[in-house]
Amino acid sequence: MRFAPRLLGIGLLSLLVLLMMSCEATKQSSNEFGSPKLMKGEAIAKVESREVVHFTDSTAEYATSRSELATAFIREFGDGTVVDKVQVRKAPVGDGQPVTYYLIGMGLRNGGFRAMALPLTAGGDNTYYLRPGAERYILTGVGCAVCFFNFENGRIVSTTCSRNLGGGHCDLKVEVTNSLFAAK
Best label site of 46, 76, 170, 171, fewest CB within 10 Å? Predict the structure, then answer.
């Protein structure tokens, strides 16, 4: 009978150790910056780039709906601009230059034309993605009904006012990143 309490104690201790080991096995470890350590072949599910469009023959299939894109543009402008048109356009390039596509949102703020263009990154198989590190080209029309982006070798370099009837102009602002698909 003297062994029964010891056996019970050892059994409980073993059970406790097993429970602690199973908890440690399912716990994610972190490095000094707080992000999980990865084993080879393991990936963290975080959004770096987001698929926007896939081209088949001559049509564009939007992976993200145009209404979702319009809402994201409105949030990205963040100043009351209402985006009512979203499109993906191929930028003119010289011979031998890689093809560049831009995601463009257009709308109005207080009756003035506004547009934002973001370059897309090719992902192979005619699929194009938006990277968070992609720059934003923002157009603001001042006394101009519609503004256009001017391209040189696939890059936006300036703007043009559609009808400059009285000193109207289009202002171009370039921001180095975007948060179009960032969770708010």
Answer: 46
Strand partners, 103: 88, 118
Please, is 50 exposed, middle or buried when counting C-beta atoms within 10 Å of its C-beta (0-12, 13-18, 19+)? middle
Rg (CA), the chain: 27
Question: Which tens digit of pLDDT belongs to each residue from 61-91?
Answer: 999 899 999 999 999 999 999 999 999 999 9
Q: Which residues of 73-112 are buried (b: 16+ CB within 10 A; e: fewer)?
A: bbebbeeebebeebebeebeeeeeeeebbbbbbbbeeeeb
User: Is the model's pLDDT at 28 over the cut of 80?
Assistant: no
Phi, psi of 18 (to 5 degrees): -65, -40
3-state secondary structure of 176: coil
> Is there a contact between 146 and 177 (Cβ–Cβ < 8 Å)?
no
Strands 50-56, 121-122: pairing kind: unpaired
121-122 and 136-142 strand pairing? unpaired
CA geometry: angle 50, 55, 61, nearest 5 deg: 70
